[in-house]
Amino acid sequence: MASVKIKFRTSTVEGGQGTIFYQVIHNRVARQVKTGYRIYESEWNGSLSEIVMPRFDETRKTCLSEIRDKVASDIRKFQRIIASLERNGTPYTSDDVVSAFVSLNPQNSFFSFMEEVIVNLKKLGKVRTAEAYTTTLNSFRRFREDRDMPLDMVDSDMVLAYEAYLKANGVSPNSSSFYMRNLRAVYNRAVEKELSSQRFPFKHVYTGVDKTVKRAVPLKVIRKIKDIDLSLNQSADFARDMFLFSFYTRGMSLVDMAYLRKQDLANGILSYRRRKTGQQLFIKWEKCMQEIVDKYDTENSVYLLPIIKPYSKTDERTQYIYAGHNINRSLKAIGRELRLTLPLTMYTSRHSWASIAKSKNVPLSVISEGMGHDSESTTRIYLASLDNIKIDKANSLILKSL
């Protein structure tokens, strides 16, 4: 039968408050459950594993009395959980006991904490980060078979096991690293809030970024995409137009395209601010861009392109995501028809613009500025800004080659 012990961990700061935690032991396997109950070392009797009440400080006595009652309540919960598992007659582990306890006390559980972080991110308007964290949490839930756990159970062994699980399920190193970085960010938030101690559980897993499979296509393929007859396939025709518009505008991302407003185009210049970095970019408006805009009826919309429809009952963010899925699905079909060796997606246009610009001997610094690489590029270290005329000349040079 499993047993539960009440333990006390002293503070790392001299004279500071330590923390009460529980140790669950079953079949010689011990697991810890941290609590938010904090007391001073002088208020703990280690030999009896109980709180010592002060004789004269009534305020502190009231506080400690409340903590003692909560500890007693927690122990009763543990006892009920263990008794229930024993009655079932099926084998169980100390992790099972802890998971059952956490489900009754969600305030210090990893799933609940991460869900709270996601909610707060949405309130702050950081929707993309919230979506990334949601995707990560869903993956981690599958690994844990939807069993929540205390924050203190996130250790190196568990993270390594999660990495092995991802690899066994065919997840690429970059995607695995993406999940690990998100989990690490949430874990560090918990440490900052003193809900867990820092044990650096992610130091042995991969959190870098590998070189991705080549996504660029040469100029002759861009020509094929432009010239292919899609008159009988409206969705594919639209996907092709969005791909070309992205290429024409120096590899503009779909999210930035979706939110382009008509007022962003003035005096032959398209200006927009990248949603990813906040950097403002200016693009000389070209005839090929106007031809795409003229194909679609956006008379009753504030947006330049028909990706987001203001009259739709679906919110704008969902419309953009849904459109992105449909566009990429159609682009992949076009790629298969053209017998391309790589999946054709919107991201291919961005990679291709940069690759073709490089083949035209456009300086790396101009390419970087043209694509809005705000802080990651080496060129941004020594170049504060570039003349937009140089960038527009580079874009015109590429477009004339089509």
How would you describe the overall organization of this protein?
This protein is mainly alpha-helical and 402 residues long. It is 50% helix and 11% strand. The protein has a three-stranded antiparallel β-sheet. A three-stranded antiparallel β-sheet has the order 6-7-8. A two-stranded antiparallel sheet has the order 4-5. Strand 7 and strand 8 form a beta hairpin. Helix 3 (110-123) runs antiparallel to helix 4 (127-143). The protein is elongated and about 85 Å long. The N and C termini lie far apart (75 Å). Residues 375-386 have low confidence and may be disordered.
Strand content: 5-15%
Number of strands: 8
Q: Quote the average pLDDT.
A: 88
Helical proportion? 40-55%
Cα-based radius of gyration, to the nearest Å: 29 Å
The helix/strand series, from N terminus to C terminus, equals EEEEEHHHHHHHHHEEEHHHHHH
Q: Quick one: overall form?
A: elongated
Low-confidence stretches: 375-386
Q: Biggest β-sheet, characterized?
A: 3 strands, antiparallel
SSE class: mainly alpha
Helical element count? 15
Give the strand order, joined by hyphens, for the main sheet: 1-2-3
What is the straight-line distance between the termini?
Answer: 75 Å
Compact overview of the structure:
A three-stranded antiparallel β-sheet has the order 1-2-3. Strands 6-7-8 form a three-stranded antiparallel β-sheet. A two-stranded antiparallel sheet has the order 4-5. Strand 7 and strand 8 form a beta hairpin. The chain has helices at 58-88, 94-104, 110-123, 127-143, 156-168, 173-192, 219-227, 234-248, 254-258, 287-294, 316-337, 346-359, 364-371, 379-382, 388-399; strands at residues 3-9, 18-26, 29-39, 44-45, 50-51, 265-266, 269-273, 280-284.
